[in-house]
Amino acid sequence: MKRISFILLTVLVAVSCRKASPEERIAKIASYFDKTELSYPEDLQRFEGQKRIDYLTLTLAKELGADDVWTLEHAGANSLAAEFPGRENRITRYAYLSASLDDPEACAAVLNTLKAFKDMRIKHKGTIHALFYSTARDSAGVNGLGAIFREDVQTGDQITFDMELSTRDTLPDRTFIIEDKAFFADQLIEVVPPYLEQLGSFDFKKGRYPNRHWQVSAPTYRYSFDPAALRKESAAITTFALLLN
Question: Which of 53, 68, 76, 79 has the smallest number of Cβ neighbours within 10 A?
Fold first, then answer.
């Protein structure tokens, strides 16, 4: 109840704020992506393997100002994580913004969201961990994302949700799949879509929860997008991440 109450409260506070309504803030996000050069996809496609990780590390640390960037070796491959503290700066509660290292357009969308937050001085409430994970699996079938999640749980950290981005999923494009408890999923599907209408047409559907095939034991919000429309897609992803945070 607390999590959805926070989402509703955030929207209500934003509506009452004299500085900018939610619609105005979303319009600014759309305008930002209309005017900003998006070079990350081309840059990421030029690199593979460790060179892609090196590029992401440098971008996260130098350009986007992550507080911490680190790698985790698992099943003979590296995954990458970066921390961006929120207003509360609560170091034991995180939201994931994740993408597979094998999907450069999805990795670029994560970077686009973080860059929009930085350039527009959007202060998200909770701490974000940006995760770029290896799909290599160990003998137990655990990939890089699962290894990072296990490490966080072992240190006592709490994962509030995972927003997973992909261009190679079997899910339909421009569709948010909400894998959460039925009550929370219903509330999100009721509250959030009207705010994204000004960015285009999007579908919202409930997914299976808990999803025992996913290696993060936390609510997961999936979005499979069209890389050919990266500006509009990035605006939608940034808006959704802002509303969740």
Answer: 76
Measured from the Cβ of residue 49, the count of other Cβ atoms closer than 10 Å reads 11
DSSP H helices in the chain: 2-16, 22-35, 40-46, 49-58, 104-119, 144-154, 182-191, 193-196, 230-244
Tokens of 72: 């985790």
Phi-psi region at 196: left, alpha or beta (left = phi > 0; alpha = psi -120 to 50): alpha
Query: Whose CA is closest to 223, among 242, 214, 236, 210?
Result: 236
Q: What is the 3-state secondary structure (H, E, C) of 33-61?
A: HHHCCCCHHHHHHHCCHHHHHHHHHHHHH
- Residue 62 is given by DSSP the state I
Closest CA to 68 of 91, 48, 88: 91
pLDDT digits (tens, 9 = 90+) for 50-107: 999 999 999 999 999 999 999 999 999 999 999 999 887 656 788 999 999 999 999 9
What are the CA-CA distances from residue 78 to residues 75, 172, 187 (Å)?
8, 29, 37
Which residue in this structure is represented by tokens 């997008």? 225
Burial class (CB in 10 A: 0-12, 13-18, 19+), 18: exposed
Q: Is 75 left (phi over 0), alpha (psi -120 to 50) or beta?
A: left
Which stretches of 59-134 are DSSP H helices? 104-119
